[in-house]
Automatic annotation (TrEMBL):
GO molecular function: transferase activity
Protein name: Glycosyltransferase
Keyword field contains Aminoacyl-tRNA synthetase: no
Gene3D superfamilies for this protein: Spore Coat Polysaccharide Biosynthesis Protein SpsA, Chain A
One Pfam entry name: Glycos_transf_2
Amino acid sequence: MYETKLSVVIVNYNVKYLLEQCLRSVQAATNGFDAEIWVVDNASTDGSIEYLRPRFPDVRFIENTDNPGFARANNQALRICRGEYVLLLNPDTIVGDSLRTLCYFMDGCSDAGAIGVKMIDGRGAFLPESKRSFPSPWVAFCKLFGLSKLFPRSRRYAAYSLPYLSPDKQHEVEVLSGAFMLLRHEALDRVGLFDESFFMYGEDIDLSYRIVLGGYKNYYIPERILHYKGESTAYADKKYLNAFYDAMLIFYRKHYPQSGRWMSGLIGASVGLRKGVARLFGWKKAKTPKPKRRSVLIFCRAEALKTARDRVAERLPEAVVFRQWDLDERRAMDALSRRVRMNEYTDMVFCYPDMTFDQMLLFMDRNTDKSCVYHMYYPDSGQLISPGR
């Protein structure tokens, strides 16, 4: 019935260098595996297609002349992709070597409709949206009015992000993230594609909900990926806030019609409260203060050191200390096992392919210092990818 084992679908909008990095990692993860890769470009103006097509001739590109939104763009590829399993992936991600393992899990677990994974950010910190519960009216009330923050370990008040479930263990959960969602194509055929009423947020919650209603289960598997988490979107700006809560209204009117009126009032009150705070303090995204002096540890082989250091110095003029961890002589993980003082460094640079993507992710996850900023350097293109850049 299906012509290939895995279809990878990525929607792009003006993040060509992040997408280049993502495609590198996907190609490395699927090397020798029966897979196809689709990129749907939503009318990017940064030259994404012209830049990426010659670099990735095996990738199938769909070029839109406008931006139809995340849900509709994904559906364009979902209607024509040929994989038994479909991976929906954000362009601001890096995957490791786990894609085959996850497909094998699906092979052996016929009730699995979708799989999510352990997502970490650009500092190696766990992202709680990796596993969530359905935003029922009570769960939404606790989240919207801050009870989940007041009682962060409570099963009753903090149920949305499931903080009481270990991020390092497998769980059956209700909601997975659209940044990485591995789907059984058969389940999509049964429950339908993304609801295109959702433009930018909420479509993953809706699809997760319908998968469960369709008789399948959603699983969280602690295989790690990097997700820069909306590098092109300011989390707290007015446009984001309105889009997010509009998506929640669509969800409640669709799945909780009996609660629609009072949930609309609840969400409206929450939006009004947030906007009132914004009028007092401004629409600003919370940012970690930048250090005045930076110390940088570069993981590379000898031949890549000079170009890596020059590129980092250009990007981080406040860097005053540069040290190399010579991968010709020592493994990257030895820096942790030998208890090198990681907190001496504000930044670490991983050079590819001197380090594999899997090694990068493992290091970031295992390093207990979550204040360090990680950068990825690619000597063949000269690109340095940094969080927020």
